Amino acid sequence: MTGLPIAAAAIRSQVTKILRNKLFADAQRMSRFLEFAVEETLHGRADHLKENVIGIHVFDRPSSYDPRIDPIVRVEARRLRVKLRAYYEREGETDELIVEFPKGRYSPVFRRRSSETPIKTIQDDTIAVLPFANLGADAGTDFLSDGLTEDLIGALTRVSNLRVSAWTSASMMKGDQDNLEMIRQLLHVTYVVRGSIRKTQDRVRIVAHLIETSTKRYIWSQTFDRRFEDIFAVQDEITNAIVAALRAKLTIIHTAGTASLASPQSLESYQLCLKGRFHARERTFEGLQRSALCFQQATQIDAASASAHAGLADTLTLQAEYGFADGPDAMREAKRAAERALTLNPESAEAQASYGLILVLYDWLWEQAEASFRRSLELNDSYAPAHHWYSVNHLAMLGRFSEAETEIEAALALDPLSPIVMDGRAFLRFLRRDYRGSIAVYNEIISADPSFYKAYTSAGRVYLHMGESGRAIEMLEKGLLLSGEVPSIFGALGHAYGIAGDRQGASGMLKKLMEVSATRPVFSTSFAVVHLGLGDKESALSCVEQAVERREPNVVSLAIHPAYDELRSEPRFKALVEHVFPDYMCGQAPC
Predict the structure, then answer these.
(1) Contact 411, 389 (CB under 8 A)
(2) Does residue 261 carry a pLDDT above 60?
(3) Of 339, 335, 273, which is closest to residue 302 (Cα–Cα)?
């Protein structure tokens, strides 16, 4: 503590105020964690707050509890830090007394707010792997440099107590690798890894550097000249060298037993996986088609490659979600691929998260999906997609908004520049009917990336529910210009035209959807919302029934999405929601 001593009564009062906040309303175990740690500290037992003690007293683990096997205390401690930070950045932004848990310890510290000591700080245990420069003569091998970067990110996320900036945010620093101060501020990292790769025939030359962002001092640097077939060994060497260099500065432990998806495999299969990930990031119809083909070829070449099967599962799921493939068919194939990946590598956080997403979007097995997401985060709490999917696709759909916000903020801490994750934050506010808060986030996304079409179309849907149909149409049309023919946008436009009284425009969107459906899959819910705009509830209900019967991915939003509010009193709609959400879950969701 700094300054005058803080009375225990004041600390307990502050903790009570924090726990009454909506962020902790649905987080009983986390609340117990906070109360237990505070009381132990106030009674002079801060030194006793070890993982095994907390596991037994807070999480009801047996006396034989071994934190090396069950990492729940580490996982929940990180989430508690995220929640406390979120509280003090919002409702608690004027609170005089601050309770916080420094990284690497489970006992809290208490301090008075000081303008000289801001809450947002750059922690010592943070690192970003910047895109490696491709020095090869063939620009078509960019997938190799990007793949090396992404693989190193994946390897470092498996290091205990090290927070690694996700690929999406790190990749935005391409071309700015020398601007360390900008990188430090945007990604909130203390260290960066950067370098280059040059491939010539069967040889590869990799140069890697570890740099401290505040001092611009090189902590470690090395050049590797090897045969290309040794690429797996080189990646391991780089990771181990970085860990060794950081161990002298930080309290980190290289976690064993969490095998990477990029474990040794056929070199040809590995290159196809790199290409598959490269094309998947395009998020276009053509890009996802190329991605799926790459992963399919990789599985044929090396049927034992967990990386290839997991990559195929993710790509097929994206195709289904974006409406670029027949949803049910793609999800069934994705599920088979994810199950195969888990059979090959049950310790893969990536495959566990993919499987959880599929169990939500296709099987509606909410409890099993939650187990997969939690297992993914236990294996690798730095895997941003797991936090993102668990938040937006699972917790939010069940109306568990406080937990969902905790997870999306954890994803943003790892991937602060990702427009997709930012969209998740805005979407949660939309679902909570905080429309102005949602628009504020979408404006932030558009300001950072004016070419991101989804920010416009999502904002358009929000404006529509704010009663600003003219603004909604303007945003949706702008998004359509940027995206091309995306059926879900036609549906949203038809909905907006109908509400604005433009029945001809709405009918035109129905006709457009019919034309598109002759050549590619179109979600039945896209037709449903247009019928809602036209005031035709019967046709809308028939379309939603068809969507549920076909197990289209977006029916998981039926219980909570504002677009369906006018159908909630309809017995047919209630029956559909009960079909998608088991009875024991409907007590938590607004069924």
Answers:
(1) no
(2) no
(3) 273
